[in-house]
Amino acid sequence: MHKALGVGATNGTIFLGEGTRRSTFLKRKHLIQAHKEILMISATNELNETLHRMIRDDFDVLKKRKGIAFSIPFKKWEKPDGNRKRDDSLDRFEASHYCIMTVVDKGRHEDCITAARLAGAKGGTVIHGHGAGVPVDYYFPLAIEPQKDIVMIISTKDKVDSIREQISSELELDKPGTGILFVLPVIKTSGLLEDRAEERAETVV
Q: Whole-angstrom Cα distance, residue 36 to residue 54?
């Protein structure tokens, strides 16, 4: 966050989460969880490029398990105005990667990651949260807010559909109350496997 402020960012939000990877020592059957910090920053297109350069240079994300960065396009919400032309710029671009977000009950994130791996995902990041709806077992004046796991997976465009379908099928997300899944486009990445391969190729050339 301090580095981001130094290159022009004005604010940010930090989430605590867990990274997931397979244990080779345990014959790849179990997930190893490592504490992670997720930093979310709003940025202009120019600042976005600057932040990616800073992250690549200062945090070695092109090295294995040093972290990743990705950018998701957002459009500022404005009150409808009859004189204002609709901005459909976000509808036209082609994303090479997508962020698959799955919200399930606490403890089901391993099932989600396992299902995603079957469809070709490399891993994911888990953020813990809680639901805001009123649960079935609600007794006034005590409302129990169910804890949730939010699983974030970055996928290439060619794998996103199969990963989404595998997660939905294995976790039975078509049934009420089992969870939700949504997909966000990604317009720039740093630190993914393909980014490291691209960097090595440019270095050789």
A: 19
Q: Among 139, 137, 114, 136, which residue's Cα sits nearest to residue 124?
A: 114
Give the containing element (helix H, strand E) for 119.
Answer: none
Residue 13 and residue 1: Cα distance in Å, rounded? 9
pTM to 2 decimal places? 0.78
Token couple for 201: 């190729």
User: Which tokens belong to 121?
Assistant: 């995902």
Amino acid at 190: S
Residue for token pair 């997720």: 38
Q: pLDDT per residue over 4-23, tens digit each?
A: 999 999 999 998 888 876 55
Q: DSSP assignment, residue 72?
A: -
Beta bridge partners of 190: 69
What radius of gyration do the chain's Cα atoms show?
19
Q: Which three-class secondary structure state does DSSP give residue 188?
A: strand
Say what percent of the chain tops pLDDT 90.
54
Domains of the chain: 2-75+92-204 (3.30.70.120)
Q: Give the alpha-carbon dihedral of 192, 120, 205, 200, to 10 degrees.
A: 40
Cα separation, 107 vs 74, whole angstroms? 30
Measured CA to CA, the distance from residue 205 to residue 198 in angstroms comes to 11
pLDDT digits (tens, 9 = 90+) for 161-185: 999 999 999 999 999 989 999 999 9
Q: Residue 1's CB: how many other CB atoms inside 10 A?
A: 13
